[in-house]
Amino acid sequence: MLVDTTVRPDQRHRNDPEVVRRLLTTPARWAVVGLSGNRRRTAYGISSYLQGLGMTIVPVHPRAETVHGETGYPSLSAVPGPIDVVDCFVNSGLVGAVVDEAIAVGAKAVWLQLGVVDEAAAARATAAGLDVVMDTCPAIEAPRLGVG
């Protein structure tokens, strides 16, 4: 049996400004997937920005590097303790698996960075009770909302 996985225009995810505001203003533990010690990568700067907003960051990368003084882990399932937000710095073709892992580990929210779009993954996360922000960046949203 074939299952229709297309997303109709009326089903497309829309970011809720109040969810964005709450995620950016409530101190939380953010697992940053794709964060390495490479200073040229966007994840490096944004994770520092999140720390400046009062967030605790947890680097998640196959190399499990320590970044910004925080111990890294090779996967979300390897991270000890609760995760509030999973910040996804992976391409759209890979983010569905990260969202599924975020659901499995009991994260409260997923944030898909600017250019990262997966409507089906967003729908799965929403159905699982997670807050979802997609295709934007904290460094764009915080100043726009007067946060920080």
Question: Which key phrases capture this entry?
Answer:
148 residues, alpha/beta, Rossmann fold, 5 helices, 15% strand
CATH homologous superfamily classification: NAD(P)-binding Rossmann-like Domain
CATH topology: Rossmann fold
Oligomer: single chain
Helix content percent band: 25-40%
How many E strands?
5
Q: How would you describe what is shown here?
A:
The chain has 148 residues and is an alpha/beta fold. The protein has one domain: 3-Layer(aba) Sandwich (Rossmann fold), CATH 3.40.50. Helices cover 34% and strands 15% of the residues. The protein has five helices and five strands. It has helices at residues 17-25, 42-52, 92-104, 119-127, 138-145; strands spanning 29-33, 56-60, 85-88, 109-112, 131-134. It has a five-stranded parallel beta sheet, sandwiched between helices. Strand 3, helix 3 and strand 4 form a beta-alpha-beta unit. Helix 1 packs across helix 5 and helix 3 (92-104) runs parallel beside helix 4 (119-127).
Condensed summary:
It is built from five helices and five strands.
Produce the secondary structure layout:
Elements: H1 17-25, E1 29-33, H2 42-52, E2 56-60, E3 85-88, H3 92-104, E4 109-112, H4 119-127, E5 131-134, H5 138-145
Parallel strand pairs: 1-2, 1-3, 3-4, 4-5
